[in-house]
Specification:
The complex is a heterodimer of chains A (92) and B (115). Chain A contains three helices and no strands. Chain A has 92 residues and is mostly helical. Classes of the chains: A mainly alpha (92), B mainly alpha (115). At the A-B interface, α1, α2 and α3 of A face α1, α3 and α4 of B.
Amino acid sequence: MSDFLMMAITTTMVMYMLAMGLGLMRLLRGPSAQDRVLAVDFLYVVGMLVMLVLAIRYDSDMYFEGALLMVLFGFVGSVALAKFLLRGEVIE
Amino acid sequence: MNLPPWTEILVALLLLASGVVVLVAALGLWRLPDFFSRMHAPALASTLGAWIVTFASIVHFTSHAEEGALALHVWLIIIVLSITAPVTTIVLARAALFRRRQAGDPLPPPLAGRR
């Protein structure tokens, strides 16, 4: 793995970290509940991208399955939270 | 299928592009004034950002695989994401509309042509 790719991976990780920081600020700031759900969904997506970049960094296939699970859990969590905001309960 | 060494440069450039895209999405999520305009920003990360990282991953794992193997398993994430992201967005938008209507806040104007 060349130095250029290593440097690019580090830079990408720093950019993801900044993005997650901004998402976390939106999560803490609000102002409404749906803003927080949106921020959680965004954090799930960026976390999944971090897993994919780590898969390239460590040259391993295992991270792919973690990323797939993060997509699925993020979907289920966001839809459940949105359904709760919509109806007051998740399963009717 | 051993690809030449320029694949590493291609992977690096794709990763940097995805970092920029995700950062723009986060800035949109943080800076845009209204919830309904904020909803548009994270779609950039879950579509363009995820696509670019998937391409980088395919190029990288294909160049490291043994002869003739095309590493396409990362496509699965794109397929799942392209099914789930619109569902999340629509359910969340309907929840936001419902909550605003309940609270008596001003709503965005309806689409043209709808009664």
